[in-house]
Amino acid sequence: MKKLFTLLFLFGLTFCYSQELTQVKTDKYSVYFEFDKHKLTDEEDKRLNDYVKSLGDIVILSIGLEGFCDDRGSIEYNRGLSQRRAKTVSDILQEIASKQKNVEGKGKIDLRITELQLNDDELDATRQLNRRVDIYLEYFHNDFIDLSKPKDSLPTKLQLENRQLRLKTFEDKPLKVGDIIKLKDLYFEGGRAVLLRKSEKQLEKLLTELRNNPNFKFQIQGHVCCIDTEYFRDAVDEDTGISNLSESRAKAIFAYLKANGIPEERMTYKGFGRDYPLEGEKERNNKRVEISITSID
């Protein structure tokens, strides 16, 4: 067997939350060629196209292509043949590689088939398996993508502006249903729903205000920064590997309030990912938790 060409696609998908990513997966797929051919048969072309279509629920980080050929022919000829086979496959994968950043080619030779003790049928079968291109994928599985939420369900500009107008503080009196209380000084460990000690002052203030207003019912709303909403609806919670960090942080505040005497029936929690970025603010300020007043008895 001769492995004579490696082609690597590096995608230009750069996410500033990448340090929070914990579950990158890999996959391998092979397509096969007839003897001395670099074009796929109709059957193999269909197999490859079906495979490409099946990738719709993952986000590709990189695609590596390795071209192979059997032991017949000169090294130089087979090097060119394996390169042409890899090029055939790369052309079909261009729809995936539309964000291609770099292409790198490598080659090495591995002459083994002639050393094996095979009968004619076994030799033909082995040579057929060696006339191939292997595809190596590195990707995020759809655990990281909320595909149930279509892009057109994201808030409109008008909805964002209306929400911005409802942002208040506890000092804004009187507060009414629909007002959203900004909690400025809550801090979490990166990629986790674990509160830092410097959040204590804000937590104590929140407890005091909620105790002083026992007729308020409210929703705790979590938000995150630094994700590409074209591909992701939330950041990854490093403790679970699930893409719901904004919800996990809202739930952490819910648990804190409940543990400190705020009745559970007064409150709910929800994560919004980066659906509601703050206008005119630095991106890191979108990493926040807010309190939305849902009713006043």
UniProtKB/TrEMBL annotation:
SUPFAM superfamilies: OmpA-like (SSF103088). InterPro entries: Bact_OuterMem_StrucFunc, OMP_bac, OmpA-like, OmpA-like_sf. Gene3D superfamilies: OmpA-like domain. The keyword Membrane applies. Keywords: Cell outer membrane, Membrane. PROSITE patterns: OMPA_2. It is found in: Cell outer membrane. It comes from the Bacteria. Residues 20-141, 175-297 form the OmpA-like domain. Its main location: membrane. It holds the Pfam family OmpA. This is OmpA-like domain-containing protein. It comes from Flavobacterium saliperosum S13.
